[in-house]
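Figure 3 (text version): structure tokens given as input.
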């Protein structure tokens, strides 16, 4: 599984600039709000969702405090049903535990089973905060760099107005 050390090495190898902030482990947005981070950071939440009817998985990435309307998302995706994936699915497909979900988890999705969906509002974010697959650290980097990295890996990345 690709963890923090491998992600930091990969970003350096690909010459992707980032800022690194170590902190106590955080498992929720509320806990993350208690950690001192730069005010210019675009904080995020990352949700692994599943359409049980089609067995499709979606990693939805959006601003941390923005509510997600599952009914609207279901229509946008053409999904039959949407629910949160189980911790077992999270480990199976992204190699992550609840509270450490990150766009970088896609690097553990060797089968490319999970579609990455960024909220359109994040497209131009330059200081996007994401865990490097471990929740005791936050990296700040451009969404465009994450998009490029995941696309080079072979993952499908899309943007939707959530």
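Below: residues designed for each position.
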């Amino acid at each position: 599984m690709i963890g923090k050390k491998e992600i930091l090495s990969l970003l350096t190898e690909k010459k992707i600039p980032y800022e690194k902030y170590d902190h106590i482990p955080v498992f929720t947005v509320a806990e993350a709000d208690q950690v001192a981070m730069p005010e210019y950071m675009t904080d995020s939440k990352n949700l692994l969702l599943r359409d049980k009817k089609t067995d499709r998985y979606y990693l939805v990435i959006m601003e941390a405090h923005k509510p997600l309307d599952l009914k609207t998302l279901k229509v946008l995706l053409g999904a039959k049903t949407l629910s949160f994936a189980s911790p077992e699915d999270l480990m199976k497909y992204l190699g992550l535990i609840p509270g450490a979900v990150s766009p970088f988890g896609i690097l553990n999705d060797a089968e490319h089973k999970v579609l990455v969906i960024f909220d359109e509002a994040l497209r131009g974010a330059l200081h996007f905060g994401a865990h490097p697959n471990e929740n005791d650290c936050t990296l700040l980097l451009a969404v465009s760099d994450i998009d490029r990295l995941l696309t080079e890996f072979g993952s499908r990345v899309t943007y939707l107005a959530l």
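The longest helix spans residues 143-153.
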